[in-house]
Structures are given as C-alpha cells and as structure tokens.
Amino acid sequence: MRVFKDFIEAVRVQMDDDAFRAxxxxxxxxxxxxxxxxxxxxxxxLLDSLYFSVVTLATVGYGDLHPTTDLGKAFTIVYILTGVxxxxxxxxxxxxxxxxxxxxxxxxxxxxxxxxxxxxxxPAGGEPEELPEDPxxx
Length: 138
Hints:
Layout: H1 2-14, H2 18-42, H3 46-57, H4 70-115
Helix pairs in contact: 1-4, 2-3, 2-4
C-alpha cells in the first residue's frame, strides 16, 4: 500500500511539469485509443480491450487475448513500438521522483539521528574525531 501511496504522490509532484503532463496525456491517450481500436477491430468488450492494451504496453503478454485480424495485428505492431516508449518515459519520471523523495526522507532521518547523538560521538566542532591508527596494521 505504501508503494501505491508513494506512486500517487510522485505523480502529484510531477504534475507541475509540462513535459510530464504531456507524457501522462500521451499514456492515457494510448490506453484509450488501444481500448477503442481493439474493441472495434477485434470485437472485444471495452474491459477486454483495456486489459489487452495494458498487458501489451507493460510487455507482459499473457497470451489469453491476441489480435486475430490482419488490421488488429498491424495496429498492435505500431501500438507496441510507440506505446512502450511512452510508458518507459512515464514510469522513469515517476520512479525517479519516488526514489528522490525516499532518499530525502532517509537523509533527514540520518541528520536527525546525527544531531541527537551523544557528545562523544559528535564533537563540538561537528567534525567526526579521527580514529587512532592501528599500531598492528602493516
């Protein structure tokens, strides 16, 4: 559940960026186009068509549905070649934001822990004390 919340938050944060909004629009548009085209060309229900569109763009390919018409097959070739690229760009932006936000949280926790360390571990000057050299080291 946390990953889903982080995903939604990352999308929300990225919505200020015009390029991200364009990529999101393209991705949603591709899903809608795939749903409509497969429904018309293959005679599938809208749910089956959306399911196939998602499975295809995610490169999962369960094999339970597949285009049977020549036009459907030709559309699928173009759909995969364009859609996978859009999905990769969209996913990379979201994942990068999720990782950046998680790294920021970790850095803040470490800084808080460091500030709350006992005086022996953190000298007054803020610099860590040098450890004495090991006399047995070569």
